[in-house]
Amino acid sequence: MDLLLKEVFDLAGSLICHQLPERSLMAGDLVLPVCARDMGIYAGIFTAFAYLAVMRRFGAQRPPGLAASVGMTVMMLPMMLDGVLSYAGIIETNNTVRLFTGLFFGLPVPILLVPAANFSVYGRNDRPVLKNWTELIVVYVAGILICASILHGLMPYAAAGLMYVAGLLSLISRIIFTVVRRSSTGSKWRIRIATVLGSASALIFLYVLSSYILQPLKEMLLAR
């Protein structure tokens, strides 16, 4: 069963990640389907989406306040700097840094994305995505604990793989839903159908991109 899951998760991971073994974390004897940085990003995305789902905030209209938005944006910068400087050969960080900077990049994405679909220029927008700073802290603490469990090998491979896949699918579908919702005045069912078709098209595009660009590039890097 683990080997079958690994094949499925590795295929899903290949859509967006180079999957270099030395840049990936382990769960038991199995290498996780994406690198440490991507694992952090999608663990953050999953955590935030899960919190918003539990709190029933997918219909939120008002984004976080200015201070919270600026704070989350600032915490996204370390991953971008780490990525650029690492690939430029200026610095070399480890998987722990990649995991947690990825987490801080991924966590704000759902919080900022969800209100984008529902915000009304002329409306009251009285349904906030986060009601106070306490909720934001809870989301970040939950993400840190989840990534700590991944880092120390406490999370089973299946759970980590499912978290990545759920995070990826949630992100793609929510982006497509937002685009459709902002550009369409159709019924809810038409919007949902368009979201499903758009998400499927995005996954096909990622598969083609991976097959002809990302995976050949990976083979070149591994051959060095």
Note down, in words, how this protein is organized.
The chain is mostly helical. The protein has helices at residues 2-14, 36-54, 66-87, 95-106, 108-118, 133-151, 157-183, 188-222, and strands at residues 26-27, 30-31. The protein has one domain. Strands 1-2 form a two-stranded antiparallel ribbon. Helix 2 (36-54) crosses helix 5 (108-118) and helix 2 (36-54) packs across helix 7.
Index terms:
224 residues, mainly alpha, two-stranded antiparallel ribbon, 2 strands
- What characteristic shape results from the CA principal axes? globular
Cα-based radius of gyration, to the nearest Å? 18 Å
Broad structural category: mainly alpha
Number of helices: 8
- Order of strands side by side in the largest beta sheet? 1-2
Number of strands: 2
Number of domains: 1
* SSE pattern: HEEHHHHHHH
Q: What percent strand?
A: under 5%
- What is the helix fraction of residues, given as a range? over 70%
Give the biggest sheet: 2 strands, antiparallel
Residue-averaged pLDDT, rounded?
91
Distance between the termini: 33 Å
Poorly predicted parts: none
